[in-house]
Specification:
Layout: H1 12-21, H2 24-43, E1 53-57, H3 65-68, E2 74-78, H4 82-99, E3 102-106, E4 119-125, H5 133-146, E5 147-158, E6 166-173, E7 176-182, H6 184-193, E8 197-201, H7 204-212, E9 216-224, E10 228-230, E11 233-235, E12 239-246
Parallel strand pairs: 1-2, 1-4, 2-3, 4-5
Antiparallel strand pairs: 5-12, 6-7, 6-8, 9-12, 10-11
The structure holds S-adenosylmethionine.
S-adenosylmethionine binds next to loops.
């Protein structure tokens, strides 16, 4: 594969989004709530913790290794961007040393990895919103194939809460983060040719449909990362957390 570079170097656009448009403490607390839901689902698995293997697809810098190391005996992670891969490798070494959980990080995308390993859990956190349509469909297919029967896909991605899918290009205008709504065709071109960070806001329906096509059944759905909490629900959620089980 040609060398892939994630367009948001150092996560600067994401950090600017969180700091400028959200309350960053509430942002973190919102993610902590959905990670608690993930923990509850993992607690219901019948396998022994030390026997479980988790695949982290698009692990970035290994941000979630610490959290998931509590629930599995081994983590395998894939990260195509060289710089982020090196950071994840270092993070993996630290988490492995402190938890005893075996962690290996590979500089690849899913599918390049020819090893036919199968996993109890696959984690895909904030990856699919940056991929072209064909790549998302392919990723779902491969993730479903790599899950053991009864295995769980934990998926976090951006969410269009009015069911209208939207496409954006995020980039810098001198020192300001700029987000511009674009057409599906432009999104696909930017994914292919570069020119910013492509971000797709998925409707729940389209995510569930792509998953159903590869026999992944929805068991949990939780919007999160809202602007505020109203009546116990997050208002204007930017993201959603899905748990699918392989039938
Ligand atoms: C927004 S970051 C999320 C990182 C991490 N999962 C997290 O939640 O912090 C998206 C990551 O997906 C990686 N990525 C992009 N295309 C990918 C693909 N086809 N397969 C796996 N990872 C991919 C990028 O390099 C980037 O590190």
């Amino acid at each position: 594969m040609a060398e892939y570079r994630y367009p948001d170097k150092g996560d600067r656009l994401t950090i600017a989004l969180i700091n400028n448009e959200y309350d960053s403490k509430a942002w973190q607390e919102s993610e902590a709530r959905i990670l608690d839901i993930a923990a509850d689902a993992l607690a219901q698995l019948s396998s022994k913790v030390s026997d479980r293997t988790l695949l982290d697809v698009g692990c970035g810098t290994g941000r979630l290794f610490d959290f998931f190391a509590k629930f599995v005996g081994r983590i395998e992670a894939l990260e195509p961007d060289n710089e982020r891969y090196r950071q994840a490798l270092e993070k993996g070494r630290l988490v492995e040393a402190s938890t005893g959980v075996s962690i290996s990080v590979i500089n690849e995308v899913l599918g390049d990895n020819k090893k036919d390993n199968f996993y109890d859990i696959i984690l895909s956190s904030h990856v699919i919103q940056h991929l072209g349509q064909a790549q998302v469909v392919e990723l779902f297919k491969t993730m479903a194939r790599k899950l053991k029967p009864g295995g769980l896909l934990l998926l976090m991605t951006t969410y269009a809460d009015d069911s209208q899918e939207k496409f954006y290009c995020e980039s810098w205008d001198s020192e300001s983060r700029k987000s511009r709504q674009i057409s599906f065709e432009e999104f696909e071109n930017i994914f292919r040719d570069g020119g910013g960070l492509p971000v797709r806001m998925f409707s729940k329906e389209s995510v569930v449909k792509m998953a159903a096509a590869v026999k992944l059944k929805l068991t949990e759905f939780h919007p999160f990362h809202g602007k505020s909490i109203e009546n116990g629900e997050e208002y204007q959620p930017r993201d959603a957390f899905y748990i699918f089980v392989k039938e």
